[in-house]
Structures are given as C-alpha cells and as structure tokens.
Amino acid sequence: MTTASSVRADAVLAVLRPDVRELTANVDAAVLRPADQTALDRADRARIALRVALVNDEQDHADELAAELDSVAGDGAADVVRDVERWAELSEPQQALLAHCEQVALDPADVSVAEIGELREQGFGTAQVVAAAQVVAATSFRIRLLRGLRLVEEADGGSVAQPANSIEVGSTADGCELPTPDEAFPQMRWVPWVEADSFDVALRHDPEALEACSAIYNAIMSDPAELAVADRELAALAASLRTGCELSSGVHGRRQVELSDDRITSVALAEAGPASVPDQRQRAIVDAAGALSPTPAALKPEHIARLREVGLTTEGIRDLIAVAAMSAWTNRLAMTLGNATTRDTDW
C-alpha cells in the first residue's frame, strides 16, 4: 500500500547508505507484515505501531499506520487507537497489550517484570510479548531515523542557521576521580522476564524480526561508513545512557574504549554526564545522540549545526542518526524483556 506520507518517508530514507536503506525496508515487512502471524496478526501490530507513532508526535508516520490499520481491521479502527477513551471498545487483552506497549515506547525504564506477569494473566505467551516488543522497538527506530534525517535535509537546504554557540556546551567535570573502564562497564548478566535463558534466545521467539534487527544492527554499527566505528560506539553509549539501558551502555562503553584506546571519555560520560566530555567533536556527537533518545525526541536543528561546526559531513551525521535510532530499538528490547545485573541471581 502506498500513501502520500509513505512516499515522503521513502524520499527521506533514500539518502541512507544503500545497505542500510534496503535493510530498513526489510524491517517494515518483517515486523509489521511477517509471513508468520501466529503470535500477533497485522491488525495487532499496526495498532501498536500507530500508538508508538502517536506518543512520539510523529504525525506523518501515524497517518500512514492509521491507513494500514483501517485497511486490515476496518474503517474506524485507527480512531479507536488514537482516542484512549475509546479503548474500551477493544478486548481487555488488547487494552492491556496496548497500554504496555505505550509505556515501552515512552520510557522503557519504567517497565518491570510485574507488567510481563500482567500480560501473562491476560493470556499472552512469550512469543506474543516478544513480538509486541519488536514492533514497539522497530517503530521507535524508524521514527527517530525519519526525524533525524529530515533535520539534516532541512539543514542542507539552507533553512537552518549555524551559529557558533548554537547549544550551550557547559563546563567539563574536571578533577573528579574516575573508575577504570572495567569498573565503569562491568560484564553484566541479562536475566530474562520471559521464557528464555539468554537475550538472543528470547528474541528467537520472533525469528523474522530478529533476523531483520540483527542485519540492520550489524550494518549500522560495523559496516564501512563515513563515521568511524569508535564514534558510532560513543553515540550508542550516549543514547543508551540517556535511555537508562545498563546492558547496552556496558557493551558500547567497553567497545568504544577498545576501539579508540581512550580510557577517559566513555568512562567520564557514564560517570559524570555530557558535561564531562571536553572534546568539542565528541561532545557534539554525545549531545545529538542523547537528544534523539527521549520520547518524543529532543533533537533540534541546532544539534545538526553543531555537528557540522565540529567537522562531521552530511554522511557522517546520517550515520550518527542511524546509530542513535538503532539504540532506541535495542534498548527497548533489553530493558523490557529482562533485566541486566552484575549479580549472580535469578529475578
């Protein structure tokens, strides 16, 4: 199905590297329209994705998803999702799932194992919970990708001024005693809240989404690109810290230290926040990635201007946006299907 908004979205995504652009298209098919709809059918997936777009204030994408939902569930189905007061027209399990997914989209740090238990009481099994999480996470990724790329396009069109001090940089956190990278980023154990013995096993309950997620993650984080891999890891760390994902923060923090041989920047960022990053190029990367993380995203034209000021090219900025958007996906899976801990315990 092609709509005016989907055409606009395709035009925005067309500027991505060919591999990432192709894999982004594959994500929509795998997550919203999978061949196997045993866990969640297309209507359920469209309802969830629409609600995620709405709480992210992404109206164009919401309109596209609303049209898709109406096409598979009947005219007016999208209106019910838009209006919380009409959720009573849905079944109790659908209401519970939609409310859970809205919270995952808004702030995954507030999701707990108790909510997974409540979904089980409504009759949802592990495959359904994982599939719903993938829809929320993948939609969160797409929304941030679109928003960031649109800002870059506007800047390239000359509509955004680039003042030297467009964003307050703040003072650095000098003089504080920092832990070692191993102390700041310890190896963590992921304790599942669903039926699985590891994070990867949990995601295998929705194999099509897992395949799509793994492929695009590897392309964005590891494949040759304008932005150096160490900078991509720094951006992913900043995004994960902003979201509050300890598992992802540890992974990206350790990786950034290994790649850059810089034992200070990532540790200082994790311990003292963005103000502790004195290098202006790294600070611009950290601020932009962090700004793309909340719901709705706080990325502004001024962030793009600062990235240009410190020397990032258009392609490099697009790479950074893809990394931060990808973190919104992986963070939501890690934080809402289980819990990261350094303790050897069962939760």
UniProtKB/TrEMBL annotation:
The lineage of its organism: Bacteria, Bacillati, Actinomycetota, Actinomycetes, Pseudonocardiales. This is Peroxidase-related enzyme. Keywords: Oxidoreductase, Peroxidase. One of its GO terms (molecular function) is peroxidase activity. PANTHER family: CARBOXYMUCONOLACTONE DECARBOXYLASE-LIKE DOMAIN-CONTAINING PROTEIN, SI:CH211-175M2.5. Residues 207-278 form the Carboxymuconolactone decarboxylase-like domain.
